[in-house]
Amino acid sequence: MKTYLLAGAAMLALAACAQKPASLGPDVVVPAQAGLGAAQIQQLVVGNTGSGPMSGSQVRYIMYVSPDGKAELRLPTGIEAGNWRILSDGQFCAKWANFHDGEEYCQRVYPEGSTYKFVDRTSTMFLTFVPGRAL
Questions:
Q1: For the segment 60-101, what is each residue's pLDDT rounded down to a tens digit?
Q2: pTM
Q3: Which of 7, 31, 40, 121 yields a CA-CA distance of 20 to 30 A from 55?
Q4: Is 6 domain-assigned?
């Protein structure tokens, strides 16, 4: 009898490990319509600092986008160096030393009032931009 109980407990433990972790917030919905074009994104971000909340948390995201393709990101853990680029199809892409596990991610950009919504499959950021470097 103990053998069956132990086997059952082990199967339940393994099943729990195979489940997808719970989301940190509501599912991210990527709008069906096209976002800003490449030239509009360049005018918005290059040489400017964007700041605002990240989806699923109250973490404030602050990034400076330098004209030379370099970027800086301020998170509660400190400032990270990174690189950025804008794809011809209107996606803003960034790659940071540690954020997003150091992997490049690309986002569509949508105007939303006085802020801009940066959206990909896993996150949404609502950023407001000011001229220059303001980390």
A1: 889 999 999 999 999 888 999 999 999 999 999 999 999 889
A2: 0.75
A3: 40
A4: no
